[in-house]
Amino acid sequence: MRRKPIVYALGFIVLLVAVLFLTLYPFGETKATKENVQSLNDQLFAANIRLGMGEKELLQQYGEGMYQEGFGGYYRNYVSLKLQVGIAGDSDHDLFGRVSYLEFSNPSYSIYGIHPGVTMELSREILRERGFKLLTEEIYHSGEISVSLHGEEEVESVQLWFDDKDLRDRQY
């Protein structure tokens, strides 16, 4: 007779733990993601576009642009702005359905003060001072943010993206 209250109590505890887990587990965007993105956005000047910006807001401000399918998402090219914006299309991506990639060749845009026309040497130095590590000949990485500089003596274009740590081994 005494077993029923114990079984109910154990069932209640299991249910409570499950509810707490589902409520508190950081599905999707984590605190670290928000800090990485916010830190970058504080130094990003590119037509008021920010990583993590919703596609709806992007379309309201800049229109459709030229749509282009990509791997793990798609792009909107704004030729007159010299800007390409990538939207994450993988539902496992922390920035799913939002801006996760930018590429610009407009000298009016910058990240950490790096813009087209600045010397490659100075740009690399700025990234190193900001804690970015060289991954390949042209890609610098810090946390979940990657920056790629293109050009010979001077920067011609800059790519930056949110490199979701949980998807780095995923092949599209």
Largest sheet: 8 strands, antiparallel
Please provide the count of β strands: 10
Order of helices and strands: HHEHEEEEEHEEEE
Strand order of the largest sheet: 2-3-4-5-10-9-8-7
Shape: elongated
How large is the count of helical segments? 4
Kindly state the percentage of residues in helix.
25-40%
Give the end-to-end Cα distance, rounded to a whole number of Å.
58 Å
- By helix and strand content, what is the structural category? alpha+beta
Any idea how many domains?
1
Could you name the key traits of this structure?
172 residues, alpha+beta, 8-stranded antiparallel beta sheet, two-stranded antiparallel ribbon, 28% strand
How would you characterize this protein structure?
The chain is an alpha+beta fold and 172 residues long. The chain has one domain (28-167). 30% of the residues lie in helices and 28% in strands. It contains four helices and ten strands, in the order H-H-E-H-E-E-E-E-E-H-E-E-E-E. It has helices at residues 3-24, 31-41, 55-62, 120-129, and strands at residues 44-45, 66-70, 73-78, 83-88, 99-104, 110-111, 133-134, 139-142, 145-151, 155-162. Strands 2-3-4-5-10-9-8-7 form an eight-stranded antiparallel beta sheet. Strands 1-6 form a two-stranded antiparallel ribbon. The longest helix is centred in the first third of the chain and has 22 residues, at 3-24. The protein is elongated, with a radius of gyration of 21 Å. Mean pLDDT is 86; it is low at 25-29.
